Each structure stands twice: as structure tokens, then as C-alpha cells.
Amino acid sequence: MQGARAWRCRGLLLPRSAPGQAASRRGSSSQDKDRSVTVGSSVPMSAGGKGSRTNCSRSTPQKVPNRLISEKSPYLLQHAYNPVDWYPWGQEAFNKARKENKPIFLSVGYSTCHWCHMMEEESFQNEEIGRLLSEDFVSVKVDREERPDVDKAYMTFVQATSSGGGWPMSVWLTPSLQPFVGGTYFPPEDGLTRVGFRTVLMRIREQWTQNKSPLLKTSQRVTAALLARSEISMGDRQLPPSTATTTSRCFQQLDGSHDEEYGGFAEAPKFPTPVILSFLFSYWLSHRLTQDGSRAQQMALHTLKMMANGGIRDHVGQGFHRYSTDRQWHVPHFEKMLYDQAQLTVAYSQAFQISGDEFYSEVAKGILQYVARNLSHRSGGFYSAEDGDSPPERGMRPKEGAFYVWTVEEVQQLLPEPVLGATEPLTLGQLLMKHYGLTEAGNISPGQDPKGELQGQNVLTVRYSLELTAARFGLEVEAVRTLLNSGLEKLFQARKHRPKPHLDSKMLAAWNGLMVSGFAVTGAVLGQERLISCAVSGARFLKQHMFDVASGRLMRTCYAGSGGTVEHSNPPCWGFLEDYAFVVRGLLDLYEASQESAWLEWALRLQDTQDRLFWDSRGGGYFCSEAELGAGLPLRLKDDQDGAEPSANSVSAHNLLRLHGFTGHKDWMHKCVCLLAAFSERMRRVPVALPEMVRALSAHQQTLKQIVICGDPQAKDTKALLQCVHSIYIPNKVLILADGDPSSFLSRQLPFLRTLRRLEDQATAYVCENQACSMPITEPCELRKLLHQ
User: Which residue stretches does the UniProt record annotate as biased composition, category Polar residues (predicted)?
Assistant: First the structure.
């Protein structure tokens, strides 16, 4: 292994990936990777040099389907023609493993994961590897987006026993579902610096048949240690940690990791992490008269601007890709996830509220335009993702980014029109190439293209401001803006003729809840009813297709069927904690945007169900899954990290505070306190791991504002006061419309609303804190002054 850096995990010595291989583009956090080559176990394996290299050439896929053909998940269906005897996660597979005394090979991924595609092509379509998996193991496929409980339980093991985690995740289990070897992506063959999947399978088979007893003991010991380490409980703590200390430490940790030049909070790769930006905006509001407050605002706005100018944003079709492989936000990992679009549109809307700069509102509107066009079911639901891989031309093998990249020749042919008034001969194509940094050789470095798929290609990324581009060619700024938009529209129309990336048409309750928030918040901030209508359609879809009236439970998934229909798995996959938490958040945001109390009523009922199914009455906080649904899993976890998506416990803390503000129910405030106390040690040690929960901690310490508008919902003066509230960044508030009906839902929840009156028959606002209300206000400008205090 000369020349390769080796690393050791649990007695297993393996070299790191060679430069240019999978490790060159790994994710920045364990929750977000999908290009890892890691293994953790107690099974000795040789790394494999030239002498042990085995030919595992890929064969033509079998035409006979395996049992995954009966599944609904797009990810599982992608593997339905592998020459592997795949099982879905379930009792049939577990019974077979016990009966035949075979280890379980668990493969977890998702349908738009690039390295999941690679492992399928290289290994799971290979006849010899398929025989090994079918004869010596019980092979199980799991869509991590369908079963986040399975994913989180075994990812905890992989992270604890190897150098990291990611997808595809590969874990070997005993027939009783205890993990004993874990890893991520494996190449099919051994190399000088890497161990191949075939070798791993043969070594594990050997150990299982010849040395099982110590292997099982190690598995039990590791599982017991993980159980102890993953426990999150209040213990003797009755109160949450210090707000001032925790928020200050979280800010300092983010300040120390901020990239001054390009924004973001890591070197590379860089993820959007909207939860961090949300914390910084909240921190700015609480400390806006201090230097740290100004710094927090600057970091968040700068990061959002650099992301929007970078290649992580699709400048042609809008929306954001999953992450950037470099610190400049230039070359992305091209898949587009619904949860990113949902959270980023809220972040850009908040940036507009804070700065007044329409740059941010335009980005938010662009995201929603993309979602409405590409990720929306005609019944109102939202699809999960679009793949980053697609064929450059029909009939060709898919390549990463093929749909999104451009050559100089293509752009010149599509945009040959001369630009009038320029100080030198100039075509529209040349103007666009200058502004977005396109070059003849391509603007993607070889280090970012390990497979050589993007040679000569360009990712559009803003290189100059509109002012600089205009000055360079002696043009007016608005003329340049119009010309560039015209050019991008022509590229968009041309791109329609390319083979499209795969669409994951699975619909998840959690991500749909986030998207309802995205449309509702942005529509309210911008005063655009059509966006709020999209949020209403999304909520109606959830209630019609993902809610079981009889049990009051949410379903986790549904799927786009033929002819615009909606299909479900049988039996249904019931919702997890994040489904309830994110949908409740979406409904609360939708109530404030639409003032339709039916959404608030449904949110209260879902919160009651969430409390019944997931609340830990002994330790505080919520488990990620129901006890019955996760039966057999080695761990029942409470998610303790805000990553690409916020932790469901973090979101729940905010929901409980808001629900208390809407109803006055003390039980929800008590639960919020218990939840924050349960996570206090985690927040105290590494607050930057839970910025959304730290934000909830700060909101709990502050006094929540109840902003009450008394008026006719359809009257202009009522709408003016509502829009005034929506235009201001006030994260720690509830907005209530009191229409004068003493029997209304909110009047029954909050009896003090019956005492508030309109002033001289005009729409009137009251700002209430600690059961005390301000003097009545009828003018939006006066309300604005009060809310800015």
C-alpha cells in the first residue's frame, strides 16, 4: 500500500480512496454524503493488490424481474431487473435469514443518488456478484426516503464503526437484525488502494461460516454501546440550558467556519443548510444593535447571494442542485431535492424581508416556478426529486450533469443575434458566455470530473455583476438584464429537447409539508395569492391522499400512478415523526398566510396524534418512529442533528411554542420545555449541530408575540394590516385573524379575543405579550413601527 494513506476502524485496515476516486467528492456531513468508500467491522480483509484483482465485468441486465417489481418505490423498481434475489424490508426476508441461518445484506439508497447508480451498474448488475448475494446472503433493498427509521438506525452503526457514512449504505446484519459490518459504496473489484465488493462478500461469508461466535459478540457489544450513546433524556434536568450562552456559542462556531470570500460554512463540498441561515437571521434580530448581530446578518445574506450566483443554482431552469463540490458554489452534484427547494425559498423570502433587496425575492420566485413546473402532481402534491444523471443523447448511457451543462459551440449556435449598441462586435451568445463564465475548454476542472464525463462542458455561474458586464460592453444595465433573460429563455427552450433526468415521483408527507411552508411563507411575504393557492392545494392533497381519517394518522408515502392518479403501497407506510412535525409546520404557516382556521384545526389534531405516537414520557422529546413500526430494529432514535433537513425534534419545539400561542394550552409549553431540556447536553456541547433547536431555545426564552388583526378577512384595510405583518421578519410570533365571531375556533381557544374590538369600525391590530395587549392600531405604518421595536 505504498503511496496510499491507510486508516483503521475496529481492527480493519483499509487504504483511503485514491485521488480522483470516490472520496474526491464526498459530502461534508455524515447525513449528506453519497460518494463514500468506507467500511466498519471486525472482519479482517486484505485490501487487494494487483495479485488479487478479480474481473467483475458488468453484464447485460436480466430481463426476468425479481420480487422488487411489485414495489412502488422508484428506487426499488430501479433494481427490479438485477440478477439479485432482492427482498424488500419485511418479515419474509427476516424469516428466510433465520430459517437458513444466513446473514442479511442490507443496501440502502434513494433513486436520485449518483453513487447508488454506480454501485448498481458495477455490482448489482454483475452476474457473479448477484449469485454471491443470492446464495450466501438474504439481500434486502431499502429506499431511505420510505424508511428513514431503518436508514438512521444502521447509519448510526456505520458512522460509529467507520470513517463516515453516506449512500449507498451497505450493512451486513445477523438474522436478528443486529449489524456487524457496515460501509457505503464499494467498487466491484479490488484495487491498489481500495477493497472490492466481491472481496468483502467472500470474506464475510467465510467469517460467518467459520468464525461466527466472536463476530456476534462484537455485534452485541457495539449495539449495546450505541444504545447507551444514543440515549437522549432529561435525566435530572428540569430546565433547558442557558439561552444566552448557547446562542452565543452557536454563533461563534459558525463565525469561525464562515468562508469570507464565497460564503457558506465549510471548504468543500458545500451544502445549502438553510437551518444555519435561519439561525443567523434570528440571531441578528435578537442582537441587531451589536457587532455580532450585524455579522450574523452579513454572513447569511452573503451566503445566499453567492449560492444564487453560483452553479449550484440552475440559472436556466431555476431551482437549486443538492450541493457544490467546490467552495465557490460552482460545480454542483446535480440532483435536485424537494426539501432543498422548500427550505431555500423560505430563506430567500426572509432575506428579502430583512434586506428589501428584490434580488432575493426573485430567487425565491424562481425556485417556486421550478417546483410548480417540474415537481408538482396535478392533484397538488409534490414529487421528491430529479436525478443528476441523464443521457447526453437518446440511447446513450446516463452521465452526471448531462442535462444541465453547455459547450461554447452550443451556446453560440443557439444565440447568434448581434447585440446592438455595444462598443465592440458582440453576439447574445458572447454576452451570456462572458457573464456566466463559459470557456472553449470548459469551466469544470479535471479534479471535479473524476470520470471525464464533463470535458469541454460548462456550468453557468455568474462571474460579474450586471453593472460590470454592462460597463465592459458599454451597455445599459437594464438592457443587459433583458438580453441575458432572453438568452436564458432560449437555452431553456433548447434544453427541453434533451433527454430529461429521472423523476422520483414518490411523494413524502414530510417534504410536502416543507413545500406547503415554502409556498405559504413566500406567498404571504410577497403578497401573491397564487403562491398561497399552491400551498392550499398541497395541504388539500395531504389531507385527501396522505391522511387516514379513521386513525388520525399520516401516511409516509404515496406515488404518482398512470393518468394522473395517486397510488399507495399495501399495506400503507405510516408516517414518522418528521412527517407530523413538517406537516404541522406547513399547516401553521398556511393558516397565517390564508387565515383559514381549518388548517389550524387540523394542525392541532395532528399534533395530538404526534404526541400519542412518538412522545417519550420518561425522557422527554420525540422518538423518530413508532415503537411498533420499528420493532426489531437495534435502535429507536431521537434525531439530534439539523442537517440538510431540520431535525424533527427541532421543528417540533417551534411547533409547540406556536401552538401554545394559538391556543394557550399549557401542556404544549410543558412539552417544549421538556424537549429542550432533553437535548440540553447536545446543545451545550455542540450547538452548531442543532441550530434550529437553538433558535427554538431562544424563542422560548423570549416572549412570543400574538399579533391579532380584528377585521373582515375580505376587506382592504384588513388585508393591508395583514400584509404589513407579513412584510416584516418576525420569527417569534403567531398571527391571528379575529373576525368578530365569538363562536369561532380561535375565540374558543383564546377567550381574550372576544374582548378585542375594531376601532371606529376599521380593521384594528393588537400586539399581545404575556396576556397584555397594546393599544389598538388601525394604520399599517403605526403597526410597522411597533413591530420594529
Answer: 52-63
Confidence (pTM): 0.91
Taking the C-alpha atoms of residue 203 and residue 6, their distance in angstroms, rounded to an integer, is: 20
Sign of CA dihedral 198, 203, 208, 214: negative
What pLDDT is attached to residue 215?
A: 86
Q: Residue type at 233?
A: S
Report the distance separating Cα 416 and Cα 411, nearest Å: 8
495: left (phi over 0), alpha (psi -120 to 50) or beta: alpha
- Cα separation, 41 vs 406, in Å, equals 44
Contact 66, 46 (CB under 8 A): no
> Buried (b) or exposed (e) across 641-667, using 16+ Cβ within 10 A?
bbbbbbbbbbbbbbbbbbbbbbbeeee
Q: Contact, 626 vs 613, CB < 8 A?
A: yes
> Which pLDDT belongs to residue 22?
34
Q: 299 is written with which cell numbers?
A: 454572513
What are the Cα distances from residue 544, in Å, to 381, 472, 531, 540, 605?
10, 55, 20, 6, 15
Cβ neighbour number for residue 554 with a 10 Å cutoff: 25
Q: Which of 210, 141, 143 is nearest to 171 (CA)?
A: 141
Contacts of 489 (CB under 8 A, 6+ apart): none
Count of CB atoms within 10 A of residue 596's CB? 15
Query: CA 614, 111, 623: angle at the middle one, nearest 5?
Result: 10
Cis amide leading into 780 (omega within 30): no
Q: DSSP secondary-structure letter at 22?
A: G
Task: Give the pLDDT of residue 238.
Answer: 75
Q: What is the pLDDT of residue 193?
A: 79
Query: Looking only at Cα atoms, what is the longest distance across the chain?
Result: 91
108 with 144: CB under 8 angstroms? yes
Q: Which residue type sits at 157?
A: F
The C-alpha cell 436508514 sits at 151
Mapped onto helix, strand or coil, the DSSP state of residue 567 is: strand
The pLDDT value recorded for residue 234 is: 82
Alpha helices in 390-508 (DSSP H): 408-414, 428-436, 466-473, 477-495
DSSP code of 69? G
Q: Is the peptide bond before 179 cis (omega within 30 degrees of 0)?
A: no
- Parts of the chain with a pLDDT under 70: 1-62, 236, 630
289 and 246 Cβ atoms separated by less than 8 Å:
no
Complete domains list, the chain, with CATH: 67-230 (3.40.30.10), 404-496 (no CATH), 703-788 (3.40.30.10)
pLDDT in tens, 283-318: 999 999 999 999 999 999 999 999 999 999 999 999
Is 565 in a helix, a strand, or coil?
A: coil
Residues 6+ apart with CB under 8 A from 244: none
* Separation between Cα atoms, residue 23 and residue 14, nearest integer Å: 14
Query: What are the C-alpha distances in Å from 444 to residues 36, 330, 332, 339, 455?
Result: 22, 9, 10, 27, 7
Angle at 142 between CA 136 and CA 143, to 5 degrees: 155
Q: In this structure, what C-alpha cell is assigned to residue 654?
A: 417551534
Q: Which of 461, 442, 440, 433 is nearest to 328 (CA)?
A: 461
**CA-CA distance, 122 to 471, in Å (whole number)?**
51
Burial class (CB in 10 A: 0-12, 13-18, 19+), 410: middle
